[in-house]
Amino acid sequence: MNHHSSSHAHSTARVRTRRPLLGVVATFAMVLGMAVSGSATAAADTVIDTIPVGNLPTAVAVAPNGFRAYVTNRDDDTVSVINTLTNTVIDTIPVGDTPVGVAVTPFGLRAYVTETNSASVSVINTLTNTVIDTIPVGSAPQGVAIHGLRAYVANAVSNSVSVIDTVTNTVVGTVPVGSSPRGVAVTPDGSRAYVSNLVGNSVSVIDAGTNTVVDTIPIVGSPTSVAVAPDGSRVYVTVGLDESVSVIDTVTNTVVDTIPVGNSPQRVAVTPDGSRAYVTNLVDNSVSVIDTVTNTVVDTVPVGFNPIGVAIARNGSRAYVTDREDGTVSVIAIDQCTGPLCIGSGSLAGAGSLVGGGSTGSGGTGSSAGAGSLAGGGSTGSATS
Predict the structure, then answer these.
(1) Domain span at 274
(2) Is 360 a member of any domain?
(3) In which band, very low, low, confident or very high, does the pLDDT at 46 lie, cut at 50, 70 and 90?
(4) Among residues of the chain, what percentage have pLDDT more than 70?
(5) What is the dihedral angle through the alpha carbons of 29, 30, 34, 37, rounded to the nearest 10 degrees?
(6) How many angstroms separate the CA atoms of 105 and 218, rounded?
(7) How far is it, in rounded angstroms, from Cα 289 to Cα 41?
(8) Cα–Cα distances in Å, from 241 out to 220, 245, 384?
(9) What are the tens digits of pLDDT across the range 316-336?
(10) Rounded to an integer, what distance in angstroms lies between the CA atom of residue 343 and that of residue 366?
(11) Does a structural domain hold residue 4?
(12) What is the residue-averaged pLDDT of the chain?
């Protein structure tokens, strides 16, 4: 009898422990359902929300799990932290003088922010949203990209790229590149970094193993930023004065196509499946959407005043665009979400995947506290000034 009673009590305890878990899952599903209900029928390539941030927002990076976006506010010397489920700013982090670039590490535990007038990079702990380190780099740092345990920072006045060890937060290499480097992106395998040289009218190709320039690709018309396709086969370069995007074949390191876009293109980001590239056009107040198979613009999305930065959630459902003069971030729905929870299209309210994944040109760590993925992953790097 005692044995039977004990077994019954154990069984009852197991049932009781299951019920709270089921309740949590049901509640989470309900919250997600409410969060996405407003955007469940959002048409592709439309602005579904506008988020007020700081003064002169410049760069934006999305955490690997997609639940947070980090925006550098150039005039406020701050970084705004956006909850992408609610599209609201949940924290504002003071950083150094004139922050212009930001990238998040692959597991999402750290964000690296370039500070032009401080000649430094601030390291943010994304669990506490505080600056935990400051790294001296070259003069006028602009774009930053992360892969694995390395961060690459383009220094516009020093004409160099600082290579940072993200374990020790020290500069372990300085690579001379072309004149006035602005953007930087790393190939998915981490073997190459591509750097856009604004005044040098070129893209420098850095061998990440030796920290040396192994090729220089001519790009006439002031290249402003770069992005690498997820499969590493193509590099997309915004060319400001030419009002175009140059497409580089990474096998031959030659320009294989030129795509006309809007007036004064600034930044470019590629979707995780590689099918689309999103380009911010500063003067047109728009974003050009490029079909990467045909290399043609298939849509133009009106956004806020003077868009600069652009980043895409790792599930490919949302693009985030900084509207410099409006002090806002425009949220663009990339896919058309039709299900009640939009899980079929990977939306989760336009935030991110619950199961992590990889990404181009970034690196780091993950956490379930709004920084990294719930199951690991990578992150999207960013931006220039």
Answers:
(1) 38-333
(2) no
(3) very high
(4) 76
(5) 60
(6) 30
(7) 20
(8) 9, 11, 16
(9) 999 999 999 999 999 999 974
(10) 21
(11) no
(12) 83
| Residue 96 neighbours by CB distance under 10 Å | 19
- The sheet with strand 130-136 has its strands ordered as 99-104, 110-115, 120-125, 130-136
Assigned token pair, 70: 């980090």
Identify the pLDDT of residue 61. Answer: 98
pTM over 0.85: no
Could you read off the pLDDT of 65-81 as tens digits, one per residue?
Answer: 999 999 999 999 999 99
Residue 360: left if φ>0, alpha if ψ -120 to 50, beta else—which one? beta
CATH classification of the domain holding 53? 2.130.10.10
Model confidence at 115: pLDDT above 70: yes
Number of Cβ within 10 Å of residue 221's Cβ equals: 17
Q: What's the number of domains the chain is made of?
A: 1
Integer Cα distance of 70 and 136 in angstroms: 21
For residues 69-91, one letter each, b for 16 or more C-beta atoms within 10 angstroms of the residue's C-beta and e for the rest, the string is bbbbbbebbbbbbbbbbebebeb
Whether 362 is covered by a domain: the verdict is no
CB 385 within 8 A of CB 113: no
User: Is residue 266 one of the residues assigned to a domain?
Assistant: yes
- Closest by CA position to 262, among listed 283, 278, 276: 283
**299-235-260-198 Cα dihedral, nearest 10 degrees:** 120
CA atoms of 176 and 202, how far apart (whole Å)? 13
336-370 pLDDT per residue, tens: 444 444 433 333 333 333 223 333 333 332 232 33
Q: Which amino acid is at 120?
A: S
CA atoms of 30 and 32, how far apart (whole Å):
5
